[in-house]
Design brief:
Length: about 60
């Protein structure tokens, strides 16, 4: 299960534009401090995680 903190670290790296999040996965995951498995889980479930952690009601 991906935590909000993990997802937000991924999002920070993604929004920085520093890496192509697919072809430079090793660099991006290292900067986001995520394991390969966590990183791939975020990519696979990105829409659901974004809705859960960013588009939460009340924030």
């Amino acid at each position: 299960m991906i935590t909000k903190e993990q997802f937000l670290r991924y999002e920070k790296v993604r929004l920085s534009g520093k890496y192509n999040m697919i072809t430079e996965m090793l660099y991006a995951s290292k900067e986001a401090r995520l394991t390969k498995e966590q990183y791939l889980e975020i990519i696979k479930n990105y829409s659901e995680l974004k809705e859960k952690y960013i588009l939460e009601k009340g924030e």
